Amino acid sequence: MTTTTVSGVDVRALLLVHDALRREYRWMPDLVRAVHADDTSRLLVVAEHVRWVGRLLRHHHEVEQRLLWPALLPRLAGAGRVVRRIEERHTEVLTADVRAGEAVALWCAEGSGRCRDSLADALEAVGEVLVAALALEEAELLPLARRHLTPTEWVRLGEQSVGGLDPRQLPLVMGLLMHQADPEVIRGLLGHAPLRVRRVLPQVAPRARDRYVRHVYGGTDLSL
User: Fold this and answer.
1) Which residues form the Hemerythrin-like domain (predicted)?
2) pLDDT of residue 145
3) pTM above 0.85, yes or no
C-alpha cells in the first residue's frame, strides 16, 4: 500500500487508484496465461476483466489530463516541464494499452494459446510503462497538486472522476480502492457523498469486491 505524509491537499485517494492499477497489471499477465486454450467460458471472464481494467486506466488518465493538469499549469511556471514529461509517459502507456486491446480482441476471436500468450506479453508491456508513469506522477506531479491546489478544487476533481464511472460499478471500484487502505482516506473519499452513500457503500463495497475477485481470480486474496 502506498503511503504519504499529508501536507496541504490530501492526495492519498489518488494513490489508492495508482495502487489498484499497479496491482492489476502485475497480476493480469499470469491470469491470462493460466487460461486453457479450450476453456472458452474462462477466456470470456478473463478477457472482460482485462477490458474493464483498461477502461479504468483510460478514465484515470483522461481525468488527470482534463482536470488536474489545467488546474496546475496557469499558476506554476515549472509545471509545464513536469506535465510534458508525464504526457510522454501517458502516450507510452496508452500506446501499449492500444496494443493490449488489439491482442484481447484477437484472443477472443481465435482463442488460441498463441493469442493468449501475445495478450499476456502485451499486458506486461503496459505494466512496465505504467509503473514508470505512475512513479513519475507521484514524485513530481502530486507534490505540486498537494501544495498548490485548494481543497475545493481537489474535491471537484474527485467528484468528476467518480461521476465518470458507471454507477453500477461504483461499489466494486470502491471495494478495490478500500483494500488495505487507511480508513481515514476512505472517510475523506466519501466525505462529500450523500449520507446514505457514506453509510451504505463501506458495507457493500467489500462484498462487491470479494464477489468479483472470486469470479475472476478464484479467491478473495488481494495480496497475491
Assistant:
1) 11-145
2) 87
3) yes
- Considering the domain 12-148 in this protein, what is its CATH number? 1.20.120
Grid coordinates belonging to 166: 458507471
Which has the higher per-residue pLDDT, 67 or 101?
101
Which amino acid, one-letter code, is at 105?
A
Sign of the four-CA dihedral 114, 119, 123, 129: positive
Q: Answer yes or no: are the C-beta atoms of 33 and 120 closer than 8 Å.
A: yes
Q: What is the pLDDT of residues 82-130, one digit of tens each?
A: 888 988 999 999 999 999 999 999 999 999 999 999 999 999 999 999 9
Task: List, as one string, the DSSP characters of 119-176.
Answer: HHHHHHHHHHHHHHHHHHIIIIIHHHHHHHS-HHHHHHHHHHHHHTS-GGGHHHHHHH
Q: Please say whether the beta carbons of 47 and 108 come within 8 A.
A: yes
**What residues does each domain of the chain span?**
12-148, 166-219
pLDDT value at 80 more than 50: yes
- Selection from 173, 164, 162 nearest residue 204 by Cα: 173
The amino acid sitting at 164 is G
Res. 224 pLDDT band, cuts 50 70 90: very low
- Long-range CB pairs of 17-20, under 8 A, 24+ apart, other chains included: 17/60, 17/177, 18/134, 18/137, 18/138, 20/56, 20/176, 20/177, 20/179
